[in-house]
Amino acid sequence: MLTVNKLAKQGEVPTHVVRYYVRIGLLQPVGQQENGYRLFASQDVARLRFIRMAKHLGFTLNEIKQIICNADKGESPCDDVRSIIRHRLVENSIKIEEMIALQRRMEGALEHWESIPNGIPDGDSICRLIESFEDSAVQ
Amino acid sequence: MLTVNKLAKQGEVPTHVVRYYVRIGLLQPVGQQENGYRLFASQDVARLRFIRMAKHLGFTLNEIKQIICNADKGESPCDDVRSIIRHRLVENSIKIEEMIALQRRMEGALEHWESIPNGIPDGDSICRLIESFEDSAVQ
DNA sequence: ACTTGACCTGTGCGTAACGCACAGGTTTTA
DNA sequence: TAAAACCTGTGCGTTACGCACAGGTCAAGT
């Protein structure tokens, strides 16, 4: 029987993460002390480690919850696991491309801005630096 | 004078984005119709376009709010603008590296999993595919 | 025995930038 | 005049926590 603090230490996560996982039903205490403190089974340490591993591989907490639920019902989650990662791989590469494009825009902006002096805003303009990208950069 | 719908169309954003910007104080209606519908000044179209531009360059809505506030007070936001982007550039490149590392982990996992058959969960194990990364992949 | 201080507890709210559902109001069409 | 299409503001949900709060617990010191 472990308290939140002990479970968190053995699972190598901060305590508020354990509490959050309880809140979303990813961990379930097996009982309570008289003072209301939650108590966990020692196999929840393995569960917590499993969660960390899956997160590290790109699974969301919701997906991890589904995987654990299926496992608890005796169903093999392996096919789902494979297909989730295949999807995530595609999503992720799109996001990476977007972020690289953003990176290029920011670099271009900084370079471009070296030739522009600071301006004082007037009624027409908010910030000339940003507005100077009107034509070139949007969409 | 523009309603939410008209402003959204002219600014080329969905209506719920306009409403959200009102909610966080990034846009302020100049008044209301008798029925409670918000009314905006026509220069809010330019403001909305400015917001889109700044977002496209990597500014958060909070930063944009600060920039606009300073501009309204007549202060030049240019120095802040430059330094925000310099920071964002560093943050972003770190995130990109992390996502590339995740990408590699996912690719490695899929490849590795081709040699592993589906397993049925038992008491000891939740999903052998994920658990097979225990030693190699965490941290 | 008592008090101080450090540590721990659960709960509730905040984050970023929307997306969506709801119940109702308005405008257009038939 | 009625029905259908469209629009309105508000409130809640999203992800994965971080932080603040008011109070409970435990070891050390006196």
Write a concise keyword list for the protein shown above.
homodimer; 139 residues; mainly alpha; two-stranded antiparallel sheet; 7 helices; 62% helix; 3% strand; elongated; DNA-binding
Note the beta-strand portion of chain A. under 5%
Q: What oligomeric state is this?
A: homodimer
Mean pLDDT of chain A: 89
Question: Sheet with the most strands of chain A?
Answer: 2 strands, antiparallel
The level of helicity of chain A is: 55-70%
CA radius of gyration of chain A is 24 Å
- Major protein interface: A-B, 56 and 56 residues
Shape, per Cα inertia axes of chain A: elongated
- Elements of chain A, N to C (H/E): HHEEHHHHH
Explain how this protein is built.
Two copies of one chain form a homodimer. Chain A is mainly alpha-helical. Chain A has seven helices and two strands. The first copy, chain A, has helices at residues 4-11, 15-23, 44-56, 61-72, 78-113, 128-131, 134-137, and strands at 31-32, 38-39. Chain A has a two-stranded antiparallel sheet. The N and C termini of chain A lie far apart (57 Å). The model of chain A has no long low-confidence stretch (mean pLDDT 89). The interface between A and B is large, with 56 and 56 residues. The structure holds a DNA duplex (30 and 30 nucleotides).
Compile the SSE list and pairings.
Two copies of one chain form a homodimer.
Chain A lengths: L3 H8 L3 H9 L7 E2 L5 E2 L4 H13 L4 H12 L5 H36 L14 H4 L2 H4 L2
The structure holds a DNA duplex (30 and 30 nucleotides).
What's the quick description here?
2 copies of one chain form a homodimer. With 139 residues, chain A is mainly α. Chain A has helices at 4-11, 15-23, 44-56, 61-72, 78-113, 128-131, 134-137, and strands at residues 31-32, 38-39.
